[in-house]
Amino acid sequence: MTTFDPIELKRMRWRSRRGLLELDLVLEKFLAGPFGRLAPAEFEAYRRLLDLADTDFLDIVSGKADLEDPEEMAIVVILRSL
Question: Where on the tree of life does the source sit, at the highest rank (predicted)?
Fold first, then answer.
């Protein structure tokens, strides 16, 4: 497991709080489990996903849309499994 800066981890957890309950529920499960085991490249892919608008992010997590970036899609696959 890679160790990340504790301040950056707190920032990422805060950014994971979204405006849509459905998305929040999935991200809470992700933060409680797989998030702590991310490799640096996966961490960066998740950071990029957090730049998406809430509605776009929810569409992707719910399977209504996909992304072209394979690293981001790897995180989406994890999110969809939760």
Answer: Bacteria
